[in-house]
Write a structure and sequence with these properties.
Belongs to the pseudouridine synthase RluA family. This is RNA pseudouridylate synthase domain-containing protein 1-like. It is built from four helices and eleven strands. The protein starts with a helix and ends with a strand. The protein is of the alpha+beta class.
Length: 222
């Protein structure tokens, strides 16, 4: 019984996403978190590890019962995406930061590894993105171009700079610096898939074919 308990505790430590999530900066107004991949921002299951429960362990006094998820999550990263995200510590900071995002005064940058070699080193992708109504079990997005299934589409623009070309697991791959001008759900993933270069490890937008990598190779850099 003791051995089983020890093994269980070791397993919980090894597979805990908290070991990769850390606070990289804190001011009076904001906390900057380096989020691990495969980690939700929040969940209705209080026992599930999320950024919300991470914050409650690190800064329990900052949690507010007046907020649905206790903290000011003004922007989000996908479950599979790792990297930096900003969390305001009070209402005023959230209002200022949210306004800056809405007015596109903030510049966000991501690093991604995609399948194949891009034909151009500079890309300006401007394709509207909407909800893919063919998919019911999950919220999947799509590019709206002359189809009836992509609904409630909105303007979406992504800038891409190729950094390096090489091989990933003996297959051609391209490392890219990405700046999303707009902030649509799954925008980078959808745009990359649309041009025929899905992000390595993106199970959803590779039509469930990309299953070998341990993670999706998309990281919020700045």
């Amino acid at each position: 019984k003791f051995c089983k308990l020890v093994i269980k505790n070791i397993s919980n430590f090894i597979f805990s996403n908290y070991k990769n999530t850390r606070i990289v900066h804190r001011s009076q107004n904001f906390v900057i978190i380096d989020k691990a991949y495969d980690l939700k921002i929040n969940s209705n299951n209080e026992k599930e590890e999320t950024i919300q429960t991470f914050m409650k362990k690190k800064h329990p006094l900052l949690a507010s019962n007046n907020l649905h998820h206790e903290y000011y999550f003004m922007h989000r990263l996908d479950y599979s995406t790792s990297g930096l995200m900003c969390i305001p510590l009070h209402k005023k900071a959230c209002q200022v930061a949210s306004k800056a995002i809405q007015q596109r005064q903030c510049k966000k940058y991501y690093i991604a590894l995609v399948r194949g070699y891009l034909s151009s080193n500079l890309l300006d992708l401007n394709f509207p993105i909407g909800r893919d109504m063919r998919v019911k079990e999950i919220e999947k997005m799509c590019v709206a171009q002359g189809n009836n299934y992509c609904q409630s589409s909105r303007v979406a623009r992504t800038l891409i700079v190729v950094l390096e070309k090489g091989l990933f697991d003996n297959y051609p791959a391209t490392k890219m610096l990405i700046r999303p001008i707009t902030g649509r759900r799954h925008q980078i993933r959808v745009h990359c898939s649309h041009i025929g270069h899905t992000i390595v490890g993106d199970y959803t937008y590779s039509n469930k074919k990309d299953v070998k990598p341990q993670r999706m190779h998309l990281h919020s850099l700045r």
